[in-house]
């Protein structure tokens, strides 16, 4: 069931939601959280489709905030709120409200969203594109327990990662980090099968892919070994090679779907590492609403390295001094940067 409201208010939207639920015979509210999507008109459809697919696992009230750009100075001084209320088959397993803000109300989106939040339910805010530099201090981000961004959608992903680290607040996360969950699980499982000392790591992937950078940062942070970041034609992450005193461990995925795990002294194994859709990534993030300390640690470790290699300030006294490792690729750019060198540690992934 779909209801269009023009020049409306939050009170009228709430009444429309109650009326729609009664009309389809489900007056009770069965949602477990509120998902707020802040996007533009161009990306609204894809984000809404991903949220709808994720709602099969996490029934939620989805609020899509679209800030419309007024073309004339006169229009910018006139506030208007248009809404589209979807309940039932048109909204997956939850409820969807598409909010289009015009004029001065664009700068006060939180005043529109706040009355529509589910009572006593967690709030997650997701920016598919154009996320604020400091999500926790954004008026909409301040309403949420979890704040989801996506540095892959930025023009300069590596600089965006540095900004994310500077402004990190517990509850922040990024879909570029979520994309490497299967890689981290597979690499950790591979190290559990051997009793070897990791001496160095190479991460190979696309040049401007923040997931590759985050995986290299995570390995450098958790293993305390030199990590080289080299580039390939993609798609996405293509290979991780770990040098150990028992021989190399290689996880290679050349086609973006099926990977091969090779451990010295063992037969090669095919591993499913398909690149996941946005709906699967959002569903994974909604499974846990507590702060991701591992993400925070990897992100901060990488920022120290990036600052030094880009000519920024050196780490403060007491922080780890980052030293770039040699890079095989002769090309310059974020993908050719190496992660930090640190003393070799005899340990598996923490």
Tag the structure with descriptive keywords.
single chain; 6-stranded mixed β-sheet; disordered C terminus; alpha/beta
Give a description of the structure.
- The chain has 350 residues and is of the alpha/beta class.
- Helices cover 30% and strands 23% of the residues.
- It is built from 10 helices and 14 strands.
- It has helices at 10-23, 41-54, 73-76, 109-113, 157-166, 175-178, 181-192, 210-223, 278-287, 293-309; strands at residues 2-5, 33-39, 60-67, 80-87, 95-102, 123-126, 146-149, 172-174, 198-205, 227-231, 237-244, 249-252, 258-263, 269-272.
- The chain has an 8-stranded mixed beta sheet, sandwiched between helices.
- α5 (157-166) links the parallel β7 and β8.
- The longest helix is centred in the C-terminal third of the chain and has 17 residues, at 293-309.
- Residues 306-350 have low confidence and may be disordered.
- How widely separated are the two ends? 49 Å
Biggest sheet: strand arrangement: 1-4-5-3-2-6-7-8
Nearest-angstrom radius of gyration?
A: 23 Å
Number of strands: 14
- The geometry reads as elongated
How does the helix and strand content classify structurally?
alpha/beta
Mean pLDDT: 81
Topology order in helix (H) and strand (E) letters: EHEHEHEEHEEHEHHEHEEEEEHH
**What oligomerization state is this entry in?**
single chain
Q: Major sheet: size, sense and barrel closure? A: 8 strands, mixed
- Give the DSSP E fraction (strand runs of 2 or more residues): 15-25%
In a nutshell, what does this entry contain?
By secondary structure, the chain is an alpha/beta fold.
